[in-house]
Amino acid sequence: MRSALARAHGACKSVPICLESSELSAIVDARRAIGLAREGRLVEAATALDAADAAARDLDAVAVADEVLAARALVARRRGDSATAASLLQDVVRARRERGDELGALRAELDLAELEIVRGQPAIAAELASAAMASSVRRELGHLAARGGAVVAAIDLIELRLEAALPRLEELNGSPALDAASAAQVAVLLATARALSGQRAGAVELAQNAGAESRDELDRRLAAAEVALAAGDVGLALELARDTAVLAERSHRTIELASALVVVARLELARGDRGNARAAASRAAREAAAAGLIRARVHALLALCALARDDDDPSSAVSYARDASELALAAGLPVERLVAHAALDAIAGQEAVADPSAPSAATMAPTAIEGAARLLTDLGLTAQRPFRVIDAEGVPSDVADANPEILRLSGRALAVDGVREVIWRHGQELADLRRRSLLKRLLFLFASAPGKVFSKEAIVQAVWNVDYHPLRHDAALFTNIMRIRRLLGEDGSEIIRVTEDGYRFVPPRDFLFVIPR
């Protein structure tokens, strides 16, 4: 397709008959801009679009103007200006209908519905897709009806109605009625639906490999990250989301950057890393607002709500949650609205959510309720957060789930799991502390305050619960610290260091200690 457009572009610049056909030249430039934009080559796309625009201005041809508008909408979307892209597509739909081009209007209407899905406005997308599908079915336009079905399935997936989304997507997958781009999108949606329903095997690979010819590397990585999140593979989802964010920033792709960052913020909160979560959530909120992404912005606000709650700033937490709730209500995001109201309830109690329009779980699918509960747990916005994690800087965070996979305990240089009473080092479970009560109390004391110097007096009082006496305690203290160092490995003496005033715990940078509160 790209080479064909390039040849046509060259021909229209060199063949005299094409030079006289300005309409054809403008259309070729506009379609070339679309192809370049889809490949992420935005500078070249803008140049081609300027050429098409210049040619169109000299013409009195409505069809050419529509073609240029449609191309400009796609380039705006790729640049991250989804609001402008939506406005331009609305103009295209209106112009085509006014001149009686219903087929072209339906195509643009479905383009707009797909864009509203990306923006996170399923209520608008549903209205557009339903109208386009009904018209397409009446006119026996199977390819457009199939595209409309894919949009409806995407809406079902956003609202976590898996019982409706999964069979529709299974039916659409591989349909010859779909073009390459729509077929790739269906494959990604199907991978997500399968992962959410427990069919996790091969889901990430399906999303990553779908539409290799019609989707660029950035699109495929983002899709894989979101499917990995749906499948519960926290380590892979976080790795892919971080890589996607870096690539999106380099490529100046705001939409993909914001979408990746909300995944990063959610998972960093789930594993208790507030510093990285704060950076990701703050940036995601800004980028999502700039790009006009409602759903991504809601998720970023919910993450900021959780961080404000951890900072003992209930006023800011309530403000973030209310903003998220209002945006979710306007966009038609019932799962996110339920999460926002549950967060308000957890932060400020029932008096903070006296709202007759508050969402009711009774009207939602069980899978939607489960999805909302999982998001609340990941963000730490549940009323009860029974576990505390402490990082290498000694910064504590409260979390709802101490699952070792979510906290990535096995992937750290050192982790002390006070819930299961084990030590992890570089992926290996080194020691079971359940029958070593004295060593456990001593290690937990150090792990609770990395960097702090503990005097012998403080250690004996905390571990033995008696007053320190050098003749009775020095030998026992030295022996037990040596045992802990051996448990920690060859660098144990570097982790528990002797100082002039006592002992200091200096763990690796990715250290984590998790304990029941």
Summarize the structure.
The protein is an alpha+beta fold and 517 residues long. Among the domains are: 233-383, Alpha Horseshoe (Serine Threonine Protein Phosphatase 5, Tetratricopeptide repeat); 387-516, Arc Repressor Mutant, subunit A.
Query: What's the CATH class of the domain at 233-383, please?
Result: Mainly Alpha
Average residue-wise pLDDT:
87
Main sheet characteristics: 6 strands, mixed
Overall 3D shape:
elongated
What is the radius of gyration?
28 Å
| Number of continuous helical runs | 25
Strand order, sheet with most strands: 2-1-9-3-4-5
- What is the terminal separation in angstroms? 60 Å
Strand content: 5-15%
Walk me through what this model shows:
- The protein is elongated and about 100 Å long.
- The protein has helices spanning 2-14, 16-20, 22-38, 42-57, 62-79, 82-98, 102-119, 122-138, 142-158, 162-172, 180-196, 203-209, 217-231, 234-250, 254-270, 274-291, 294-310, 314-331, 334-348, 366-379, 404-407, 437-447, 456-463, 470-488, 492-495; strands at 387-391, 396-399, 415-417, 422-425, 428-432, 453-454, 496-499, 502-505, 512-516.
- The model is unreliable at 4-20 (pLDDT under 50).
- With 517 residues, it is an alpha+beta fold.
- Among the domains are: 233-383, Tetratricopeptide repeat domain (Serine Threonine Protein Phosphatase 5, Tetratricopeptide repeat, Alpha Horseshoe); 387-516, Arc Repressor Mutant, subunit A (Orthogonal Bundle), CATH 1.10.10.10.
- It is 68% helix and 7% strand.
- The longest helix is centred in the C-terminal third of the chain and has 19 residues, at 470-488.
